[in-house]
Design brief:
5-stranded antiparallel beta sheet, about 20% strand, Beta-galactosidase, Chain A, domain 5, about 675 residues, Glycosyltransferase, disordered N terminus, alpha+beta, 29 strands
Length: about 675
């Protein structure tokens, strides 16, 4: 098969279709349809996030897919007016190394009457909903009612349950088909027993599975059709039930090992659905029934639910080089198909609100990639050859571990992770302190300036415009400036590590860390504070003094609690000044009056990043500025595009217009919005 490997996927397709859930001649349901389930909390939040879009081509990631359980494939819903697609789901989106849509249409239900006439679903009666943990379609014709639901059984398999009910007063006969439309038009489709397997050129496999092989398989240039065995007869009120599994495996070994599990899911889909209902109701209840006063309002509850859905759809299970569960920053942007270190630690703190185990896994995932020196990779991927070891990210791992312990009281987890936390903390002082004065700098392992800026997480921030690179005696490199945010994070690490050392009964170590933290707090308060500017600022190693820009690094000392009351007053005054940070969407990543302020093109030169907002808001509250913190939070929630509607949560926001910017369905934005709504 000729192909351009960079532009599209080519597949070798072996089709295997696994049998339908049948009772006799597929007449009576053997389990309750989703609409027959007892009303659950999820029903209240149908439609909080709109993912109704048909992918235009194989790379169209504006069409975001629903995923769950750490699966590496996802599905969207067709728009309400796309009647040619009703009865089917869009996808799947495959997410191994970069996002690729396998098809536009997956297992679309097509019904033909005994006279050969195609069943037409009534547009105004069609309901397409994305509820927490499940996609649903409700379809009606003159005589039939169909319900379709898609939800995930595990990190490799989704189940699609279909019920067709005769709602007329007379017996009905019809035939049914399941149509899948694929982007690639040169697929070889082969029938083999009761399996459909699409094998990609990277050996990964997409499978459609039914319970038996009483069907007819058709293929054409656009995809394939599974046709039921002859005519189905339903008496008035009778229901036909179908169940199929759609799975994505990374190799033949996974397919083989999952075969029995998949069969079990198809034997008892109700049990799988019940577990899904129970888990998602627990997620929602844990979040919306707790927290602060914001969640007394339904509009903010709906936002909290959208945050959970965003986080869970970005969850990926162990695969390839990734040994533990973790979260993509966003599956809606190909450049984010991996796990990043400070992203993972931020995600973990929010995940403690509803999934303690996933929070622990997010921490473990990054420490799987800690080298002998103690450094943690910046980002890691399914294929480890793509991992970035040129830099790391700001140290927030101990913050994540402390929050996990505070929620779970799991001392075993702390004993497990504590040695890695200590090595990582020590690494900063061994390899990122150029002048050995106890204050660290961002840097890189390869001596490049760009990687050193990446290490800050604020890649192109104005404060780094004049930075240069210095070689350390250790054979690594530092920027020629000491950053206030890095040292504030390290201070907080010392405090958390001190507390965690007591958990593991290492009192002497705890006391030592506490003393170090006190000395560092004093040093930061003195060295990085500009009395003239009323702000904490980076300090040059060239003898130039302060690097005079107002940025979020300046309010980190409030979050850590190291600022004295006079300093806090000055910082809070700047933060709440409309000339600087109290913008339409508040707390941008650069003072609005700065010459470098460029929210639309600047990435870290003015857009509002929710993580930095969170640190700023929490810092204000710590010093008693609750009224000011609440006012800024309200402006963020009310003025950020689509936050309170059904649109995607964005990577960042324009501080003057509220427009959502850059990646959609962004995990750490969702994580910190959850924290703002619950803390």
């Amino acid at each position: 098969m000729a192909r351009n490997s960079k532009e599209r996927l080519t597949y070798r397709l072996i089709v295997v279709v696994f049998p339908l859930l049948l009772t006799g001649l597929m007449t009576l349901a053997s389990f309750s349809s989703p609409d027959q389930q007892v009303t659950d909390l999820r029903d209240k939040y149908a439609g909080v996030l709109n993912i109704k879009k048909i992918p235009a081509d194989i790379r169209d990631l504006d069409a975001f897919g629903f995923s769950d359980m750490g699966a590496w494939h996802a599905y969207s819903l067709p728009p309400d007016d796309s009647t040619d697609y009703h009865g089917g789901f869009c996808g799947p989106l495959l997410m191994k190394n970069s996002g690729r849509w396998l098809g536009k249409k997956s297992s679309q239900l097509i019904i033909t009457g005994e006279n050969g006439e195609l069943c037409r679903w009534i547009k105004d009666s069609t309901v397409l909903n994305y509820s927490p943990g499940i996609l649903r379609q409700s379809l009606r014709s003159a005589d039939l009612a169909a319900e379709r639901s898609l939800f995930f059984a595990d990190g490799r398999t989704a189940l699609v349950i279909t019920t067709v009910k005769n709602k007329s007063r007379v017996k009905k006969q019809f035939s049914w088909k399941l149509r899948s439309e694929l982007f690639s038009h040169d697929l070889a489709i082969t029938r083999n027993d009761n399996s459909v397997i699409i094998t990609m050129d990277d050996s990964s496999m997409y499978c459609v599975t039914l319970r038996n092989k009483d069907f007819i398989l058709h293929s054409d240039s656009a995809g394939f059709i599974i046709e039921g065995p002859g005519m189905t007869t339903l008496r008035p009120g009778e229901t036909l039930s179908l169940c199929l599994a759609e799975s994505y495996f990374f190799n033949a070994e996974e397919l083989e090992s999952q075969h029995r599990l998949t069969g079990g899911y198809l034997d008892d889909p109700k049990e799988v659905l019940d577990k899904n209902v129970e888990r998602w109701n627990r997620y929602l209840a844990d979040v919306i029934n707790g927290g602060n006063g914001y969640l007394d309002l339904e509009k903010y509850r709906r936002l909290a639910v959208k945050c959970i859905m965003t986080l869970v759809s970005n969850w990926r299970s162990p695969a390839g080089a990734l040994k533990h569960n973790g979260l993509f920053p966003s599956a809606a942007y190909t450049g984010f198909y991996g796990f990043w270190s400070w992203d993972s630690w931020k995600h973990a703190v929010a995940l403690t609100l509803f999934d303690d185990n996933l929070a622990k896994e997010s921490v473990r995932s990054m420490f799987d990639f800690q080298n002998d020196r103690g450094m943690v990779a910046d980002c890691i991927y399914h294929d480890s050859v793509d991992n970035n070891w040129r830099d790391t990210k700001p140290p927030l791992a101990a913050w994540a571990a402390w929050n996990i312990f505070r929620k779970t009281n799991d001392t075993a987890f702390i004993r497990e992770i504590m040695p890695a936390l200590m090595r990582y903390h020590a690494w900063w002082y061994h390899y990122r302190d150029n002048d050995q004065n106890g204050l660290c700098e961002y840097g890189s392992t390869d001596g490049t300036l760009i990687a050193a800026k990446w290490e800050s997480g604020m890649d192109n921030a104005v404060r780094f415009d004049r930075s240069r690179i210095l070689k350390n005696e250790s054979g690594e490199w530092s920027l020629d400036q000491e950053s206030v945010d890095l040292n504030a994070f390290l201070l907080k690490e010392k405090e958390y590590l001190s507390a965690l050392a007591l958990v593991t009964s290492h009192r002497q170590e705890s006391d030592s860390l506490k003393r170090d933290a006190a000395r560092l707090a004093e040093k930061i308060s003195d060295y990085f504070w500009s009395e003239e500017d009323g702000w904490f600022m980076d300090h040059s190693l060239r003898g130039d003094g302060f690097i005079r820009h107002y940025g979020p690094e300046g309010w980190l000392p409030l979050w850590t609690g190291l600022a004295d009351s006079a300093q806090a007053v000055r910082v809070a005054t700047v933060m709440t000044d409309r000339r600087h940070f109290d913008t339409t969407v508040p707390l941008p990543t650069l003072d609005a009056s700065d010459y470098g302020f460029d929210p639309l093109e600047g990435y870290w030169r003015g857009p509002v990043w929710i993580d930095q907002v969170y640190f700023g808001i929490e810092g204000l509250k710590l010093y008693g500025y609750n009224k000011e913190a609440d006012a800024l939070t309200q402006k963020l929630l009310e003025n950020s595009e689509d936050l309170l509607a059904d649109g995607a949560i964005r990577e960042n926001y324009h501080p003057l217009t509220g427009r959502g910017l850059n990646a959609r369905h962004f995990s750490w934005s969702a994580a910190h919005l959850l924290l703002l709504l619950t803390h």
